[in-house]
Amino acid sequence: MAKIRNLALRDIPKLKRMISMISNLSSADVGFGYKSYVPFPINWINRILPLQLKFASDSYVAFDENKVCGLITLKQQEKNPQSWRISKLFLDENGYDIGRQLVSFVIARYGAMGANTFTVKVDENHEELLELFSKGCGFRVCASEQLWEMQEIKLAPASLDKKFFRPFKNSDAQAAAGIYNDLIFPHFRYSLARKPAEFENVLCSGLYKTSFFRYVLEDGSNHSIKGYFSIQTSDNENFILNVDLVSAFDEYLGDVINFAISQILMRKKNFKLYFRNKKYQTNGSKNEKYLAENGFKNVKSQIVLVKDYYKRIQEDDRYTKPAIAFSEISRKPAFKI
Question: Which domains are seen in the chain, by residue range?
């Protein structure tokens, strides 16, 4: 059995050599290196903090006879210390058992600290990794997410006036979370629901690698929020649009995309726009049909897998439970042998 410990700086060259030998990885994955490493003493401080105070990802390596044979990285869902995402898993050749050991290790470690839910997104064509998480580690499939690329960036005629759109405020977080959670299929809601705090703008957002521009669609007649959407980018060239609209306002998806394009054009002339379609939401199929018919191309599909560390069981107090007594000490026999 391999030994597992925290990622150290001396492991980076060995990891880069191991990862470069894996043929089915992208150039971004192979580029894992010193920039991905959280340096000392930041990593040590982050390691000893409780879940609600952690501020960086945690990485662990598995090694056998001084040979690094696997890496796993966990990231906290923004402003939700009880939900963690496996963002990296690199394994050497024939590393199925090592992968199962790494995943079991982090789930046990963080579950004991108070984490409830663990998620991972796996490319739908990566059969070995899907089998590892579903059969080997007990994750269950929660539908999928798609990434659609707009083939030609262009503004379309709008049916909604721009006055229906306004920048997101933190006071809108409760409504945004309500829309998002109501759209999730009920059997996935326990694991995938999000808290209002996860939608709020963060302080000092300019210091983060990924930038978010958040907006709401508001019905001016009664000042009720009918939709929430965000534009995120990590390189100021590729922008991902996330949209959540109440069912009655699905028909205005084109207007939301149009408005998002206009906002990006104010900052950047040449860019790529992607739309993240969440198939675990009730409007996922409808959005998929719209995107296919309006100049978008599906460029990536990922299976969303979830594992809950525990579920609360509500017991029915109407039924009484019998008293139970157990002891390894047996009674002395009433007769002599």
Answer: 3-115 (3.40.630.30), 148-301 (3.40.630.30)
